[in-house]
């Protein structure tokens, strides 16, 4: 096996695994930039995965090949609505944001499994029949060397994820909305005195994180697991959270970290077929994202700093 | 003042009540009978000696994870890593349990201490990072959870078994299992761990409320700056708080390894005991006695739920929904306080 | 002349506390109108009502004669009302321009037009002589500059009525002069200004009229030209005010605190205390006068062991205490009334009783073999609460529930009770009302009379001149002069504090 073959094994899988993480981590960036810590990303992915699969199973006959796309839309909507709970608790009722996030995770799993049992009479759904097709990007896939690596035989959702990261960067750093979002996360009272509605901004940001978390979960379920059970989403939301932190709360950074974590995941799965990785115990690859995130936070890999007001409810006119 | 103390009890009670009401609504909407649902839940938790034994067995680790979370809360920390500390504690206890042949009087305490030490070590890392680099413990402990999960699985596969998925059973000399308690409860899995859990609750109360060390830990938890000005060693106290919290969680793992299961298996995901500990601590008002009661509540909910599918056709997950909603309600205590104050105004 | 702002019979209630009790404030076009009152009198509440942050429970607001309802800051902005906040409302990580345009960004096709915004900010800055760099990051510019950004924020939104909330509290004397110039320029350009302050001198210097409020009630509105500081002070406090604390001449004894060549770095690693020498003797109060940021904080932190000194020595009663841990220094006989009582002085969520033993809880009689003795702790607490007149329902009440003055009394009681040879008081009266200030000054003098050494650090010149027996002027981390308060003037001290005049420092006198 030469180096190129190795890359051709690893890189497409890395991108494949990274896409759901990118979506969800971008959601995390929006929420935390507005000052709301979102530990509930895991739960939002669970809800998205559940919605995506159930929609797909239910409507595959009506919508045919359009089904998975509509399933993603459904997951976005349901994710955004579900995240409203987190917004209500942590913005309006000033709940501890971490506690509320934990509750989101519990509720998402409990509710979706409850509904799965109610609807299907068993603990997990059937496999979906209609998924996404892999595509070769026109023109780009013909580029020698990198064409086959990056632009062939891949899911279009992966490219959407990467494009969305750049769109998010533009929104957060170049638009009035982004300026206000960051102001609300850094110094909500300053934003308030400038006439910006802090609660409203935070609601929007949390709902964006719900939409993107739901999307991430649905993409994962549609492409990778193809069904829904209690173990479909097991830690991917937290890994997305790690990617957001490792990416220093920056959309492009979060995307880079998600790609890197995707690489670690892909190595832990395909590594056994690669000669010089065969002897590396998979546990190192499995824990790599978490260890790296701790090292980043500890300042060994450049200091990662959260938005200043993250985690604190804003009380208007506090004396 | 009095109304505040009043509310301390009222808020968790109301949160539980609201959670139950919400659960009833979910059952109604999904076409189940809430009365049948809750009766079978109560029967499944306390219906006869066997169920009571199972409920107490489930309560045991809940007490300890609740104490772990509460101890951290009381000292100004949010230990969301109880889950990981529990897993490494479980691993350490079983490891000691299978590796040595010792008289019970040494072997059992040694295994429990090993669990406490492993949990403490898992708490030490975020404690040190918090104390010296000021990194928030929430994120670090979440990451530590996953590291614990994967490392433990790897050790079970490569050290405690021959590429298998579970360890050997522990030696009898390290076991918490009790033929006496089992016989009393129609062969439930109840074990002596409950005594350790109750003792741990006493230890937490005594340490925090009665000792000078507890005074320091609480002071640092509320206000690091003032504590430093008053001559306390802030860093040492932060680290100590995380270590003690982790030790409680580690002992919770020992309850599973030495009592309930007698071995350890690889895990696809978390046990949930650690995350549930957050709910136990919040409902228990972060107070040792309150935690005994709230752990019993959650133990009963979890064990009673197992009876719901056969008794009322309701999926067990309903209880997870109820627990999640209870957490929401108690976290949004501002809302409950607001409702209470409106109620009072209305009454005046 | 017409009024631009009329607040008529404004009432604002928080729970059972009446913050504004039918206050009336009328501001004429083109004037600088002072709003004078003690801390907690209700000035900020009234202004927050005008700015739309609070809704009044009663009364009427008219802007340029028209009745208005100001439901949020946007409405205030639209009416031409702008606020320069005391605690700057600036996002540290943003640039000057980003802070200024926040909330009303010039945009094209959904994108912020940063070029245009910077140009507009530059033009405004030049027009009012503010000399602000539109591209600088807030974190990198001085406090005085930050305040100008706050002013620009209001001007950018087209405000013609500017509210300045205690604007001089954070400024150096030089910056205060510049601010006064800026305010005069603004009025010349047709703006009207409301100046919230409790400093009588500023009112006398720049204001046209003054409205005095006391305990939530409007007391009087006067022409500044027809009044004097004594009258204003009496109106503000509600009785004749003793401007000076009565005291006997000091009888200094042996040196208690001796500081030699002390060098301390601040949190960012910049040298803040730079070879400082100072001696404080038994039975005297030495006041440190200086503009904030000249090394006062770092000096105190080094004296109390909170940060390590780079070099130099600190001796207490002849024993070296340099770089000992805080607890050892406390035990050696240093008491400390910290600058920020909420952050550093009290554990607000502890009962007031437990706060009384915050440094001594580990010693008998408060504990034995690692176990707390609550009876001894609360006996001591009751005694101190009585002796120092701490108004609290009981000793089990959380410190948070007490008023600032009572919190400070509790801290002073605790520190004095340990009978330290050296008492360090940092800004001991900040934010307190006149009654509490008098009480605290008396207690400091009392300590001196009992033969203790007292080191007072304050940014209020009046306080330093009033209480101290000697004044040490600190500038850029050095004591550059030691003067006798009876023989100096505020002008001289001001010049010394600004570093523009040097006196040979009598280091060990």
UniProtKB/TrEMBL annotation, chain A:
<feature type="transmembrane region" description="Helical">
    <location>
        <begin position="98"/>
        <end position="116"/>
    </location>
</feature>
<keyword id="KW-1003">Cell membrane</keyword>
<keyword id="KW-0472">Membrane</keyword>
<feature type="transmembrane region" description="Helical">
    <location>
        <begin position="203"/>
        <end position="222"/>
    </location>
</feature>
<feature type="transmembrane region" description="Helical">
    <location>
        <begin position="36"/>
        <end position="57"/>
    </location>
</feature>
<feature type="transmembrane region" description="Helical">
    <location>
        <begin position="69"/>
        <end position="91"/>
    </location>
</feature>
<dbReference type="InterPro" id="IPR001851">
    <property type="entry name" value="ABC_transp_permease"/>
</dbReference>
<feature type="transmembrane region" description="Helical">
    <location>
        <begin position="154"/>
        <end position="173"/>
    </location>
</feature>
<feature type="transmembrane region" description="Helical">
    <location>
        <begin position="283"/>
        <end position="301"/>
    </location>
</feature>
<keyword id="KW-1133">Transmembrane helix</keyword>
<feature type="transmembrane region" description="Helical">
    <location>
        <begin position="6"/>
        <end position="29"/>
    </location>
</feature>
<dbReference type="Pfam" id="PF02653">
    <property type="entry name" value="BPD_transp_2"/>
</dbReference>
<protein>
    <submittedName>
        <fullName>Sugar ABC transporter (Permease)</fullName>
    </submittedName>
</protein>
<dbReference type="GO" id="GO:0022857">
    <property type="term" value="F:transmembrane transporter activity"/>
</dbReference>
<dbReference type="GO" id="GO:0005886">
    <property type="term" value="C:plasma membrane"/>
</dbReference>
<keyword id="KW-0812">Transmembrane</keyword>
TrEMBL record, chain B:
<feature type="transmembrane region" description="Helical">
    <location>
        <begin position="9"/>
        <end position="29"/>
    </location>
</feature>
<keyword id="KW-1003">Cell membrane</keyword>
<keyword id="KW-0472">Membrane</keyword>
<protein>
    <submittedName>
        <fullName>Sugar ABC transporter (Permease)</fullName>
    </submittedName>
</protein>
<feature type="transmembrane region" description="Helical">
    <location>
        <begin position="138"/>
        <end position="156"/>
    </location>
</feature>
<feature type="transmembrane region" description="Helical">
    <location>
        <begin position="35"/>
        <end position="53"/>
    </location>
</feature>
<feature type="transmembrane region" description="Helical">
    <location>
        <begin position="321"/>
        <end position="340"/>
    </location>
</feature>
<dbReference type="GO" id="GO:0005886">
    <property type="term" value="C:plasma membrane"/>
</dbReference>
<feature type="transmembrane region" description="Helical">
    <location>
        <begin position="110"/>
        <end position="132"/>
    </location>
</feature>
<feature type="transmembrane region" description="Helical">
    <location>
        <begin position="86"/>
        <end position="103"/>
    </location>
</feature>
<feature type="transmembrane region" description="Helical">
    <location>
        <begin position="238"/>
        <end position="261"/>
    </location>
</feature>
<keyword id="KW-1133">Transmembrane helix</keyword>
<keyword id="KW-0812">Transmembrane</keyword>
<dbReference type="GO" id="GO:0022857">
    <property type="term" value="F:transmembrane transporter activity"/>
</dbReference>
<feature type="transmembrane region" description="Helical">
    <location>
        <begin position="273"/>
        <end position="301"/>
    </location>
</feature>
<feature type="transmembrane region" description="Helical">
    <location>
        <begin position="190"/>
        <end position="208"/>
    </location>
</feature>
<dbReference type="InterPro" id="IPR001851">
    <property type="entry name" value="ABC_transp_permease"/>
</dbReference>
<dbReference type="Pfam" id="PF02653">
    <property type="entry name" value="BPD_transp_2"/>
</dbReference>
């Amino acid at each position: 096996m030469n180096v190129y073959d190795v890359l051709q094994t690893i890189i497409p899988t890395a991108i494949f695994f990274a896409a759901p993480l990118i979506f969800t981590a971008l959601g995390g960036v929006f929420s935390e930039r507005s000052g709301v810590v979102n530990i509930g990303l895991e739960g939002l992915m669970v809800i998205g995965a559940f919605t995506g699969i159930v929609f797909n199973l239910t409507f595959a006959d009506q919508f045919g090949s359009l089904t998975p796309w509509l399933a993603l839309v459904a997951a976005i909507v349901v994710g955004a609505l579900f995240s409203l709970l987190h917004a209500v608790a942590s913005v309006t009722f000033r709940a501890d944001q971490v506690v509320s996030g934990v509750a989101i995770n519990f509720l998402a799993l409990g509710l979706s499994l409850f509904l799965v049992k109610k609807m299907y009479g068993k603990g997990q759904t059937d496999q979906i029949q209609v998924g996404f097709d892999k595509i070769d990007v026109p023109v780009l896939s013909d580029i020698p060397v990198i064409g086959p690596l990056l632009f062939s035989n891949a899911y279009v959702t992966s490219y959407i994820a990467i494009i969305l990261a750049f769109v998010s960067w533009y929104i957060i750093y170049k638009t009035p909305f982004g300026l206000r979002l960051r102001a609300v996360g850094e110094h909500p009272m300053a934003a308030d005195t400038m006439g910006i509605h802090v609660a409203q901004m935070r609601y929007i940001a949390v709902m964006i994180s719900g939409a993107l978390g739901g999307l991430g979960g649905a993409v994962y379920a549609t492409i990778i697991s193809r069904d829904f059970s209690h173990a479909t989403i097991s830690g991917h939301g937290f890994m997305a959270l790690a990617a957001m932190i490792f990416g220093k709360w920056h959309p492009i950074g979060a995307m880079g970290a998600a790609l890197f974590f995707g690489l670690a995941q892909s190595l832990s799965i395909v590594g056994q077929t690669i000669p010089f990785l065969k002897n590396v115990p998979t546990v190192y690859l499995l824990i790599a994202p978490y260890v790296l995130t701790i090292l980043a936070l500890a300042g060994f890999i450049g200091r990662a700093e959260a938005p200043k007001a993250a985690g604190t409810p804003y009380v208007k006119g506090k004396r | 003042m009095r109304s505040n103390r009043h509310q301390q009890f009222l808020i968790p009670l109301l949160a539980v009540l609201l959670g139950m009401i919400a659960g009833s609504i979910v059952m109604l909407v999904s076409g189940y009978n809430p009365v049948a649902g809750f009766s079978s839940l109560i029967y499944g938790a306390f219906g006869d000696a066997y169920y009571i034994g199972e409920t107490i067995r489930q309560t045991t680790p809940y007490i300890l994870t609740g104490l772990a979370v509460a101890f951290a809360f009381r000292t100004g920390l949010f230990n969301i890593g109880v889950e990981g500390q529990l897993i490494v504690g479980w691993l350490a206890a079983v490891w000691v349990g299978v590796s040595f042949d010792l008289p019970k009087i040494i072997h059992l305490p040694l295994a429990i201490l090993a669990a406490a030490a492993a949990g403490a070590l898992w708490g030490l890392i975020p404690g040190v990072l918090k104390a010296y680099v000021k990194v928030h413990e929430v994120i670090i402990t979440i990451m530590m959870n996953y590291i614990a999960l994967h490392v433990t699985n790897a050790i079970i596969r490569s050290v405690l078994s021959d590429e298998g998925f579970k360890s050997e059973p522990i030696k009898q000399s390290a076991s918490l299992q009790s033929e006496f308690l089992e016989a009393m409860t129609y062969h439930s899995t109840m074990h002596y761990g409950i005594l350790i859990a109750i003792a741990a609750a006493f230890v937490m109360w005594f340490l925090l409320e009665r000792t000078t060390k507890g005074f320091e830990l609480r002071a640092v938890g509320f206000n690091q700056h003032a504590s430093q000005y008053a001559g306390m060693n802030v860093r040492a106290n932060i680290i100590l708080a995380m270590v003690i919290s982790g030790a409680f969680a580690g002992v919770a793992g020992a309850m599973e390894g030495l009592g309930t299961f007698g071995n350890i298996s690889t895990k696809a995901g978390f046990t949930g005991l650690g995350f549930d500990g957050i709910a136990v601590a919040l409902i228990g008002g972060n107070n040792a006695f309150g935690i005994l009661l709230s752990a019993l509540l959650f133990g009963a909910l979890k064990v009673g739920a197992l009876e719901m599918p056969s008794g009322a056709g309701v999926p067990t997950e309903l209880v997870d929904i109820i627990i999640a909603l209870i957490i929401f309600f108690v976290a949004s205590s501002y809302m409950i306080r607001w409702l209470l104050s409106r109620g009072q105004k209305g009454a005046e | 002349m017409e009024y631009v702002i009329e607040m008529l019979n404004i009432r604002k209630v928080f729970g059972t506390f009446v913050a504004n009790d039918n206050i009336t404030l009328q501001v004429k076009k083109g004037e600088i109108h002072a709003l004078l009152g003690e801390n907690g009198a209700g000035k900020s509440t009234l202004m927050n009502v005008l700015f739309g942050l609070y809704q009044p429970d009663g009364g009427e607001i008219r802007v340029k004669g028209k009745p208005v309802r100001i439901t949020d800051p946007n409405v205030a902005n639209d009416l031409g009302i702008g606020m320069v906040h005391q605690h700057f409302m600036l996002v540290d990580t943003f640039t000057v321009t980003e802070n200024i345009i926040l909330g009303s960004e010039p945009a094209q096709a959904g994108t912020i037009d940063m070029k245009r915004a910077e140009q507009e900010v530059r033009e405004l800055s030049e027009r009012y002589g503010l000399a602000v760099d539109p591209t600088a990051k807030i974190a990198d510019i001085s406090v005085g500059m930050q305040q100008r950004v706050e002013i620009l924020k209001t001007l950018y939104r087209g405000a013609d009525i500017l509210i300045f909330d205690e604007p001089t509290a954070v400024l150096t004397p030089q910056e205060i002069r510049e601010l006064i110039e800026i305010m005069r320029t603004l009025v010349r350009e047709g703006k009207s200004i409301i100046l919230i302050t409790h400093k009588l001198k500023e009112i006398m210097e720049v204001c046209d009229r003054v409205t005095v409020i006391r305990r939530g009630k409007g007391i009087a509105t006067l022409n500044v030209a027809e009044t004097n500081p004594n009258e204003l002070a009496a109106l503000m406090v509600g009785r004749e005010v003793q401007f000076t604390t009565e005291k006997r001449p000091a009888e200094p004894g042996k040196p208690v605190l001796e500081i030699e060549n002390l060098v301390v770095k601040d949190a960012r690693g910049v040298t803040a205390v730079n070879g400082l020498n100072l001696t404080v003797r038994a039975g005297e109060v030495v006041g440190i006068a200086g503009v904030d940021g000249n090394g006062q904080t770092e000096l105190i932190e080094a004296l109390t062991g909170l940060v390590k000194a780079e070099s130099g020595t600190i001796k207490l009663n002849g024993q070296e205490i340099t770089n000992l841990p805080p607890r050892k220094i406390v035990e050696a006989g240093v008491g400390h009334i910290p600058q920020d009582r909420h952050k550093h002085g009290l554990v607000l969520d502890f009962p007031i009783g437990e706060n009384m033993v915050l440094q001594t809880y580990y010693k008998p009689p408060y504990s034995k073999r690692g176990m707390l003795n609550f009876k001894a702790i609360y006996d001591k607490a009751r005694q101190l609460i009585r002796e120092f007149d701490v108004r609290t329902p009981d000793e089990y009440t959380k410190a948070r529930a007490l008023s600032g003055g009572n919190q400070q009394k509790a801290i002073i009681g605790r520190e004095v009770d340990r009978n330290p040879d050296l008492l360090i008081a940092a800004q001991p009266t900040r934010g307190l009302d006149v009654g509490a200030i008098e009480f605290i000054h008396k207690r400091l003098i009392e300590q001196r009379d009992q033969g203790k050494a007292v080191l007072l650090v304050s940014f209020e010149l009046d306080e330093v001149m009033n209480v101290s027996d000697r004044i040490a002027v600190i500038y850029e981390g050095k004591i550059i002069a030691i003067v006798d308060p009876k023989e100096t003037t505020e002008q001289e001290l001001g010049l010394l504090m600004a570093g523009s005049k040097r006196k040979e420092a009598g280091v060990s006198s």
